[in-house]
């Protein structure tokens, strides 16, 4: 059994039926063929008590975002003002940090949502699955996801655990600093945060505006 097969074996039911088509946009990314092969085996899923979320190509499940919708320029990507351009975000951890592919870099990258920075964490989907299975406590945020749900019940689809005080601003990785927020709204907020913090010296005061503020 490969590590990808092992990951699929411990994951939820698929979030969508077998894909009816092979989207052409996968061809734009270095590991696009590997990702498409994974989704043809299981079209989107959750794992590690929802700490890991992989987007489906298509889905009829309520409150389930498709990969194309999630990567739409009009959803949250534009809030990063170019910092998130060139990536295909195919999954996320419990805090909304993204797992993605790049057009010019080979490997799987982690996109730090609060910093607006991406780093390569594995050279293939198989090694990415091995990384998650070997260190899921850190790579997915599972301990806090598990404990929060024990105390509060299952997370609703389409939500992630959001920090009340952003981690980059000194917020703790603790239950007291977490609340279940809409995934899209969380990324919009983090995009504004990442843009404001770009090139600023440590300790610089910033002002943030939540959507809906006057």
Short description:
The chain is α+β, with helices and mostly antiparallel strands and 214 residues long. The chain has seven helices and eight strands.
Report on the structure:
The protein has one domain: 3-Layer(aba) Sandwich (SMI1/KNR4-like). It is about 30% helix and about 20% strand. It contains 7 helices and 8 strands. The chain is globular, with a radius of gyration of 17 Å. It starts with a helix and ends in a 17-residue tail after the last helix. The model has no long low-confidence stretch (mean pLDDT about 90).
Keyword list:
alpha+beta; two-stranded antiparallel sheet; 7 helices; globular; 214 residues
Please render the helix and strand layout as text.
Layout: H1 3-9, H2 32-41, E1 45-47, E2 52-54, H3 67-70, E3 87-92, E4 98-102, E5 108-112, E6 117-122, H4 125-134, H5 136-139, H6 142-152, E7 159-163, E8 178-182, H7 183-197
Antiparallel strand pairs: 1-2, 2-3, 3-4, 4-5, 5-6, 7-8
CATH superfamily grouping: SMI1/KNR4-like
Query: Major sheet: order of its strands?
Result: 1-2-3-4-5-6
CATH topology: SMI1/KNR4-like
Number of domains: 1
Q: Write the element-wise H/E pattern from the N-terminal end onward.
A: HHEEHEEEEHHHEEH
Biggest pleated-sheet summary:
6 strands, antiparallel
The mean pLDDT is 92
Q: Structural class given helices, strands, pairing?
A: alpha+beta
In the CATH hierarchy, the architecture is 3-Layer(aba) Sandwich
Low-confidence stretches: none
Put simply, the count of helices is 7
From the alpha carbons, calculate the radius of gyration and give it in angstroms.
17 Å
Number of strands: 8
N- and C-termini, Cα separation:
55 Å
Percentage of residues in helical conformation? 25-40%
CATH domain class: Alpha Beta
> Approximately how much beta-strand content do the residues carry?
15-25%
Shape: globular
């Amino acid at each position: 059994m490969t590590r990808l097969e092992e990951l699929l074996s411990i994951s939820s039911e698929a979030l969508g039926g077998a894909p009816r088509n092979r989207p052409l946009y996968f061809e734009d990314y270095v590991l696009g063929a590997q990702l498409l092969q994974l989704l043809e085996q299981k079209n989107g899923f959750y794992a590690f008590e929802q700490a890991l979320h992989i987007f489906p190509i298509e889905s009829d499940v309520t409150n389930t975002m498709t990969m194309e919708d999630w990567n739409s320029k009009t959803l949250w990507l534009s809030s990063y003002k170019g910092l998130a351009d060139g990536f295909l975000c195919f999954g996320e951890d419990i805090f909304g940090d993204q797992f993605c592919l790049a057009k010019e870099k080979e490997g799987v990258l982690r996109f730090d949502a609060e910093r607006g920075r991406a780093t390569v964490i594995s050279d293939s989907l198989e090694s990415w699955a091995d990384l998650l299975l070997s260190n899921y406590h850190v790579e997915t945020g599972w301990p806090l996801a598990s404990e929060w749900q024990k105390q509060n019940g299952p997370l609703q689809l389409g939500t992630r655990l959001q920090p009340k005080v952003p981690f980059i601003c000194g917020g703790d990785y603790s239950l007291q600093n977490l609340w279940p927020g809409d995934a899209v709204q969380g990324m919009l907020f983090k995009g504004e945060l990442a843009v404001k913090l770009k090139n600023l010296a440590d300790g610089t005061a910033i002002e943030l505006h939540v959507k809906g503020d006057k």
